[in-house]
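Task: encode each sequence below as structure tokens.

Item 1
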Amino acid sequence: VVIILIIVIVAVNVISNFTGRKGFVRKVMNAYRDYDIETLISLSSDMYYYGYDDAAETYFESAVGYGLDSFEESVGHNYKFSYAIDEIYDLSERRQDEFFDTIEAAYPDFDISMIEQISIAEVSVTVEQDGKSIDRTVSITMSKEDNEWRILYIA
């Protein structure tokens, strides 16, 4: 019974790391690390389709590029990249309403009711090279749209 219980607990932990919000954050962070803009676009909110042409591509190239450039400036070009998910939390109703106002102002044609939920993942990123290292927090704001998690913002 104890062995079965341990197996179930391990299985639940493994499954939760590859599905749901944690699994989504892992996909985003792997694409972030690799500067895989196409994957980030495929994971992005539908709101980007209501902006100017290439809105998602421009946004992710800028946001992710800035983050990666800052790592290179701090430790060099051939660094080792690692990350850990510190926390994933849902926004309060008040903060979610503020986000909706911001989204409506930037993307007036986007139907805000498509967003079922907004969550934020705080991810600790560490880059190391030749004895130098730097730690930064990357915040991923994500929305649940049509029962799928999507990227709203990366900071």
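Item 2
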Amino acid sequence: MKGKYRLTRASDFKRVRRSGRSFAHPLAVIVVATGEAQNSRVGIITGSSVGKAVKRNRIKRQLKEVFRALIPGFKKNVDIVVIARTLINEVSYSEIQAAILQLLERAEIIG
């Protein structure tokens, strides 16, 4: 995922988490807020409940890959924070992809 599509500042994460709308799934939670940049951006949070550093980084790489393909097709300009849940370690990449697609459809970001 290119740098222009990433949320990086703590202030952006806080703004999205405070003012955004959340959508939950057993594997992840997404919080969606209106975007302040020219394009949609995504930030990923993997807490210690997901596992040690190797597992957290693997999950982040998988989530980035899912969003890399999806961001150009977003209907509107949004900022998204993805919070990985513990169960995400026990499923395959295709199940993670299906969960994210389901969440984005519920949030009416993709058609």
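Check on item 2: Residues 3 and 24 are 26 Å apart (CA to CA). Helices lie at 10-19, 53-70, 93-106.
End of task.
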